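WARN retry 2 of 3 for item q-0093 after timeout on previous attempt; input resubmitted unchanged.
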Amino acid sequence: QVQLVESGRGLAQPGGSLRLSCAASGFAVSKHFMHWVRQSPGKGLEWVSSINTDGGTTWYADSVKGRFTISRDNDKSTLYLQMNSLKPEDTALYYCLSFVRWAAEWGQGTQVIVSS
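OK item q-0093 returned
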């Protein structure tokens, strides 16, 4: 019933930008914190960013601070990740997730490749 579906263009050059979206459904989205996590062969699973229920408070990993911006639109039950000044090390599979009841609910993931 819970669904998280990521989308966004997944290819960019170094220094470029991408915007990821995550459409959430099947639970009270506005009552849950939301998160972005990425997975790569070199670093494994890495937390990227989090946002509170109304979007007024955000957290970022040091590796993306100042370059990425997390936001949400509760009217659309959608989470966003604006990625600027992209680096090759940002290449990864990006997941949105939320902790709903007993489970960590994950999206299917979307591939981001940063390469010249």
